[in-house]
Amino acid sequence: MEARGELAVVAAHLALAEWARLLAMGRVAHLFGVSWQAVYAAVRRVVAYGLSCRDKTEAFIVGIDEISRRRRHVYHTQVYDLIKRTLLASVPGQMESQLRPMQEFASLLRRHRDGVLAHFELPIDNGLVEAMNASAKAISMRAGGYRSPVFFSTLLLHCLGGLKMPTFVHRFA
Known about the structure:
The two termini are 26 Å apart. The longest helix has 19 residues, at 2-20. By secondary structure, the chain is α+β, with helices and mostly antiparallel strands. Helix content is 53%, strand content 14%. The protein has 7 helices and 3 strands, in the order αααβββαααα.
């Protein structure tokens, strides 16, 4: 009997996560009669699964840009794989990070910005990056923004990361 209960929980998480790709978290919570925290827990679980299954090969053409998450210049740095057209990472406020390696990396990028940009002399423009940023902004706007940068990053990876969803044993025809 216990296995059936666990299967029902997995099915509920998959349903909540799938709907969260399409609608605002509050709306999904209202439709299913659960809290937004339950919806977020489902999304976080599915994103963790997708990241564990993600192809770890290098991206050859990477697009990096920032989007504003809130007023007063609160930004997220977006890193896209332009070949696969997926979000690789969404890094909130990297200079505010307490992790020393992230602070050093951000400082390194700032010091060598011109050299890094000159290295990528490819005949491409930033149109694809801007289009992907527009999708990220649409995700933010459908809920009126998100207060937590971790929550926002998780949702962006869920919607734009091209992550594999867990498969369910039974498919309804």
